[in-house]
Amino acid sequence: MNPVTLLPFIVLIGAMFLMTRSAKKKQAAAAQMRNEMQPGTGVRTIGGMYATVKELHDDTVLLEIAPDVHAIYAKNAIGAVLDDAEYNRIVHGDDESGLDLDGTVVPDDASSLTGDDADKDASDDARIDLGKKTEDAAPKDDESGKKAEGKDDGEADAK
Questions:
Q1: φ, ψ for residue 109 (rounded to 5)?
Q2: Distance of alpha carbon 159 from alpha carbon 155, whole angstroms
Q3: Considering only CA atoms, which of 80, 85, 89 is closest in space to residue 45?
Q4: Which of 77, 71, 44, 66 is nearest to 55 (CA)?
Q5: CA dihedral of residues 127, 130, 134, 138 (deg, nearest 10)
Q6: Each residue's pLDDT tens digit, 62-105
Q7: What is the reported pLDDT for 26?
C-alpha cells in the first residue's frame, strides 16, 4: 500500500486518541474534585444550585440547601467545589474585597457611548420623526377622494 493512502487513517486515529485522552483527564479531575469534598464545603450542582455539604457517602452527598433543608444528590451531580470566600460571596452576598478587581468601571447604560452632553443636545434637534402620517393612513380613490371601499392596506385589484 501507498503511504499517502494510509495518512488520513493515521491522522484520524491520532485525533481520536487525543480527544479520548483529554476527556479522560477531565473525568479524572472531576472525580478527584468530588473526592476532596469535606462536610461544610460549599458546592454548586450541575443544575446551578448552591449548597453546603453535610454528609458524604459512597455515591451520594447530603446537601444543605437552606437552613434545615436537606437533599440527597448523586456525587456526579456536583459541578464544582467552591472555596469559602467564593461561596460566601455568591450565596451570602459578602463584599468582594477578596476578589482581584482592576478597578474597571462598566456603565449601566450606553450613555458613555453617545458622547458629551453638548453633542447630545445638538442631536436632539436633528431627530427624525419616523411615525406614520395621518393623511397617508387612508388611501383615496383618484376620482372621488374617498377611501377605497372593501380593500385593506396592501391589497391589490388583482383577481
A1: -135, -175
A2: 11
A3: 80
A4: 71
A5: 160
A6: 999 999 999 999 988 998 888 888 888 888 887 655 455 565 66
A7: 86
